[in-house]
Sequence to fold (2005 residues):
Amino acid sequence: MLVCLLGLWQGMGWAETYSYSVDGYEYEIRDYTKKYARLLSIPNTETVRIPADVTYNGVVYPVTKIRSKIKSDNVKDIYFTRVLPTNAQTGELEFDGRFGIKSIVNIHVPDSLYEDALNLFASKAKYYYYLITDGTRWGFNGEYYYYDENGFTFEIHPNADTPYAIIYDIPDEDNLHFPSTVTHHEVTYPVTGVYSSKFSNKTNVKNIYFSNCYAGALFNDSYAPGVTAHVPDSLFEKITIDGNYGKITDGKRWACHSSVHPTYTLQSTNYTGYCPEAYYDVTGNGEMDFFGYYRTKEMQDFCIFPLFVTSINGDIIRLEGNYGYNQESTVAKFGTLDYGFKGIKMGMYDKEGMPLLINRDYDPYNELVLPNYIYSYAQNKIISKTEKITNSNITIADINGDGRKEIISFVPSKYNSSNTQLTEEDGAIDIYRMAADGTFVADKIYVTSDTTIVKSMMLDDYTPNSGTIDKPGSSTQTATGIGYPGQGMFVEAKPAPDWNDWQEYDNITSETSQAKQVITNNGKATRAMAAQTGYVSAADINGDGMTDLYDGTNIYYNLGGNKFFKSPHKGTIYSSDLTGNGLLDFIDFGNKQVDLYLSMAENSDMQVKTLLKNTAISNTFFGDFDKDGDVDILFVIPGSDYTIFQFYRNDGNGVFKPKDTNLDGTYTCQACNDYDGDGLYEILAVNKGTYKTVLLKLNNKWSVAETELPASLRTIGDVNNDGIMEMVYNSKTVYLNSIPSYTIYDAVPNCKVNTRPEKMEKPSAVAYADAGKLKISWTRGKDAETSACDLTYELRIGSESGKGDIYFGKSNADGTRRVLEDGNMGRALKYMFDTGNLCEGKYYIAIQAIDASGLGGPWSDEFVYDHKTALPVINKLSDGYCTSDTITMTVQNPNINATYEWNISNGTIISQNDNGSIVDVVFNRGGELNVTVNMTLGNLMYKSEPRVVTLIPSKKGDLPFITYLVAPIKFLDINQDGNVEVLGSTEQEGGFFEYKNETYSKVRKTWNSDLGGSSYDFFIADFNHDGYPDFYYPHSKGNLFTNSGEEDSSFEYDTETFDFDFGYSPLIANIDFNNDGKLNFLVNSLSLYANNGDERKFSKLNDIIAEQLNIYSYDGLFDFNRDGGLDIWKNEIDNSIQKAQTKVFFKVAGENNQFNPAGTVFYENERSYNMVGFEDFNNDGYVDGYFLDHPEGQSYYNLVIVKGKPMSEWPCKETVVIPLKECTFYAGGSKPSFKFVDFSNNGYLDIIVDNSFVLLMDKDFSFQKAQYETVPDSDYRSVDGLKSIDEYHWQPLTPGAYPNGYKSSIKNEAPSVPTHVTATSVPEGLLLKWDDATDDHTPWMQMRYNVSLKIKGKTGENAFVLSPMNGLSDEAAICSGLYYRKATQLIVPKTALVNGTTYELQVQAIDLMGEHSAMTKPVEVTYNAEKMIMIDDNEHYTGLAYYGKCTNVSGNAFTIDPGEGGTVLQHSDGGIFRLKWKTPGVKTITFKDGNDVITKMVNVKLSPDLTINLPDRVMLNTPLTVRVPKSFQTGKYDDFGFKESEAYKATFEKGDTIATIVFKEVGEQSLQPYVKIEKDLTLSEQFKTMVIDETMPAAEIKSVESNGKYYQVNWSTDVPSMVSKVEVSRETNRLNQFEVLDIVPVGNATYVDLTSDNRVQPQRYRIRLIAENEMQHSDYSAAHNPLHVMINKTADKKGNNLMWNAYEGLEVTSYIIMRGSSEKNLKAIATISGSQQNFTDYDAPAGVSYYAVKFETNTSAGAKGMDRVAASEDVSSNVISSEEAMPTTQATTLYAGTVESIAKLSNSQQQLHMVATILPTYVTFNKVSWSIVSGGEYASISQSGLLTAKGGKGDVVVRVVTLDGSNLSSEITIPCDVNILASDIDVRASKKTVAVGDYLLLNAVLTPKNTTMSEVTWKSENTDVATIDENGILKAISTGTVKITATTKDGSNLSAFIKITVTEASGIHGVTIEDENENTEFYDLEGRKIQTPQKGRVYITNKGQKIAF
Fold:
């Protein structure tokens, strides 16, 4: 309505101005004279077209004015037609409006308005951007405008001097190609930049391709991890400085952002960052991935750093965070960098090839170094901690050949991780080994520098791959284990360097340390072997297939079984195989010169050459520098401002010619590889002058050139397997010390594309089933660039084709490498793999060559190894286990279908899994224990080889002792409850502590509250003789603490004056020296302070002895004769006989300090020595002495034990030597000390040596060395370690516990209560006696006794003469520091007794562990000094009569009662009587003389037991083994044995429990044992048996043959009727050590070994015959080793080579080679000599051929059973096919040698272990044959190479021949000069009766049979009855009996006799002499043909006659 009104108003002419709106335009209509329209506003649209006219009410008005404030915010294009905006008043052009907001508006005008428009809109350029155009021209009002094209927005600067464009916006697309120009309105603008930090919403962008410009950050100043920037090479360096993309590349180089992929060391803690540690292709795509730790400021605060893995392209593979300190998480948590972070250690992998990472942690809050963690990448969690390894100096190596690496902690310290002190040479090193299930088990390796140990191991018949000597029947007879001297074992005899004197082999600066770490640890610096100081590397140094270790100055040779031999060197050691023989040669840089040691097989020592003398050498490198095929040497020698490169060119023949060049400048050289792929080597180095990283190019013309590398180089490697070595370095930074933005990958300058090595030939493998080893070998590879001698090799073993789950190969299936390392085999061409963990089945083995640039070739074709069922193998336990531990024992790779039964001695299985393959065991004995397991599979049982479990008997417990205790610990049971209290030794922690609630707390008593101070002067004694223990302890409150006797822990204290001065010598024990109950002190184990009667003043016994015996001093105390008195002994020189002696002066019973001045010599020696002390080490009842000896030329001590004998046989002569290699000898230095306790509770005294280690003793002086926790010498105030223990301080702390708080499962029972306790008055005083107590572990001679002698009826002070110091309590513990007697008698001197007083005697037994019995019941005795009963002899037995007398009795008016069971045999004047008892027991003899009643107690014992159990029937002249009578074993008799008789010969040594009896006469015979019980009294008995006229024949195996896949042993059944059984034994994996398989009836004639497999290996068997009585048996037969054939291809691959072991046990004359098309169709194709052991078949038909070998034998005619054996099925080998023939590397060099250093047979060395050195060491088969070429009469040789002397003097030529088809041979001449002495002699005759005038030949039978001198001296004791000549022919002279004796002449001085009876002559001659028949052949009694008979000798003729010639 309003519009209508306005229109009406205007239409009527009422107005001149009208408002009008149409289509969004608003006009002001001016209807003036001049009609026009003025535009007031425009529509808010993108396009606005201002009309030229507007029609209103039909009238057209021209639009001639536009409002100056016109605006439109959305307009982009506006078209003007007539006019432009003007000022309404002035009409001038004016524009105050706006078009668009933050966008460019295009203003279109006609050409007439173009200039005005430019001027009009220019004023708005600061705020708005207008583009003016008239259609042809374009103008801009400001600096730039925006233009959109293809999704890009460009900011165009058209008004610039040089117009240009900037990219203002980008499309959100995957791939963005930034244009270099943009064209707008036909104007082309160069794109010169990009706006940064504004595209955070562009989430789809992945790749940006920059052209001529770039932007550092596009995404809102944030990092764009998923975006890759592609730039031209000209922009690459710039964008890596300020770029913020995940990756940048110019097509050749690429860079990854430092937030995900840096290579710098983090310093700041306020940023997000990542520290890379290792490369590994975890994804398997052929490109390396980067491993490291991620960290943020928050993580820094919590010390948590999760594992972060990225690809080399910057893609994040794994990042899982954990931001809470000590929170549980599945991700790896590691310690902070700022507190000692050492980084990732990579090198271990699981079965799937995923890495196991190792890193040390650190707790910064408690400042604790934590164990190394083992993190599983696959499981993404920590799977183990190396609790015993906390240092980062670890090595990863497979030292036991099982395909799984061990973690080795090489701690360069004299204390190992258990704080056990080591010598400089030897020690134990902690390791962790990876078990088959992937878990880690703590273990140790043991290092020795003792060459005698090495040699003894070599002679200890180690299996082929863990030792040196191959057992017969194994697949080789060479030394394939540790190298003997010719193999480089003993490189140079030099003193070991001190750990602190290690020298660096390389100058590693802070600038290059990180690069060095990556290059050497990840790239292994393979051109030089030497390790950086403090780091240990691994390699097979001596070519034995086992991994050795080296640290730069020492080489540790792997001896197998976790043992290593340390070969020290003064200088740095470098090594490489310079001769190509498989043995490493050495450079030793020390002594200011460089020595080259070449390993020469033919020499016992390495060949040494001094190359140059120069002290400035900084590096040594090896490589084929001149490309001639062998390894050269390069020394880098820095000068003042130049560097010399000294080459030594190898001519291939061991000659090295020098060639040098030089460069200006000096360098720190780091590694040597082919970095540029051209086949020549470069040295990576840092120029010390410029600090620039460079490559030093080594030209094959011996020149060197420098190429500069990026300054921030971190490592070099072919990270993507493209054949180009990439440098990895940091980008440049804008500011100094700022963080690099990028890690850059760039090709090495001037690099070429390296080609891959060629595909290798299939490897070979030979199984050593007996040793559980597989020898894998391969031939050298080929490569276009790298010389074959410089290639390394990667081995892979899998359970399936292509897998590496058994031994992981670090390459992908296509051969691309997954690591930047050499091959896992290094340059070795063989590997000894332990097959113990393999299940039966096929395994696939492949090999790959790796070139000098790290590029891998294709995998070879796979060798398929078929592993057969083997005996079960028990997994080895680590050492260090204790009996207190529960030990898990497992079977390696148990068969799930089998069951297992364990044979465990001295142990109890407490739990096991379902099939018994895993058991938990607790052992109750320490030492070396054998464990076996039986595997039952189907109907067969397989028994494992014994596994030796070595246990220490006890270990220090975890009882919470108080902190400070003086060693030895002072114990006292202050309240007699059996729990001992412990004395602290400081003011703060002094006084006594009691055990309550499993902890020790201070005794809460007034006297104890402030007790403190040093406990050195503390000792226990009963000062007031009330029977309770008091103690002396100097303190301000007093020094004498007296027990209240109330058993309530109460003590009274006072100060008394004691007159003694021990100085600084420790008080060892309180000893009642005179048995008078008075206090005496033993000080310093030697000096005795004897009381002067009042127990307050003391005199040194040395002074008393000096006065009495006229000697200056004595050396020790010991009760030698066990009479209860301590004797003294002294070392002295007897100049009259020029000998050093140890004399014993015996204590005079009952006299104070009195000794017999007639000393008895215990031991003497022409060499000077000093006896140290005495103990009974072997428990034979005889005292042994011991002293120290320094062996000449050695740096250690020997402990020499003088084996004790009965005193009637003194001086003792036999000694036992125990080397103490740990105790270093220093001239004038202190000697090691000794203490003796029974650590192992086996009844033997163990020896604590120097408070450092323990010799755990066992029977016959055998021992096991054990390390116990020790403390440094300076730390005396400690309860830990061996210092706290000695024989006076070793007791349970609580009843039934192991002594001194130690832990053990060995139970100890209390000993029995002593019996037959007696007390009798004797002239010297009171004789107290009792019988030996018994104990479960401690033998009688080691038992101790606590004796109480109390005045009857009296209590309190002075009630006791001898105080038990236990209040007579059966529960009270023994007292520490007290000497307890070992004798079962003593005499209390009369000076301590009161005549007529009645005393009560009680005795308590104490075992070696301090456990005690109850006290005996009191035995009363009244001491009578005037009248006493004296009776003959010291011991009394039933059935024997004894004289006696009562003193001071004159007539016979007395009566005598002998007691129960006694009889008075005589009653005479003067109180004389004779008694006899028929029952044993304590008898009280009562003598009445008037009113006087005198009594005496006598212990009557049963007569000695002489019982021997003989069988009813025995065989003639056949050893019979019997157990000796019990009385022989007690050790209480000096004279016992078997009575001499011509009917038998008895052999045994005193101390033996077994005797051997040989009966020599047929019929009923008697054996007569005897024992001499008193001086003139001998008891004997007779035991009868029937001797049958049958002699045990020699056991003989007829043959060992194949029976299917088993071996069958055959023997003859033609044996005497008394032979009933055969024992069949098989050799174990130790040479000549057999185990019994079964005992079967002799009539079976055969035995099939169902546990054998002749397809796998031969077995060696022996038998022996057993008589029906089972107490007689034959000697073992000769061992038989059947044929076992192996096959290989010849070197030319055209023939099949068969090789076999010589059949052992039969003399083979010929071998017959069988071949056929099947196993059942074999025919003979050749017959060869029996001396050959191989055959090559070049004529095999096409297809598969099968082979076997048979043999024929022929032995000497005339000997029993030696028939000719023809070839038959029974004596053939296993069958083998040509399909099993593998290609081989044949031997090229062979040398014969010996393990022993002196290759000579002598009396002291009657065997030599021959070894064959075969080169190269990587030959496939090192099987050889041994034979004697000449000198066979002097020695014999086994097929294993054991050369044994027969005797005689001459040369033995030994030949060794290879059997692999190479047919090499080597000979060695061994001198022999051996006299075989007789060990036994017997005299035999065909009859023992001869007539007068007849002759009888007597035979002297010597043992052994090969005795060098068989002649004897014959003697007749009565020549009137018979004479005998030198040939043993007896002539009967007259009737009677004569004793004929034969005595050896060889120096053994053995004799035997026979008694012959001469009867009246019968007229018949007994011997005929045949000499008339010239066809008679004569043989000696052993079957040897005699060419010229000698007169007087007896022979057997070919006619069956036995004649005397």
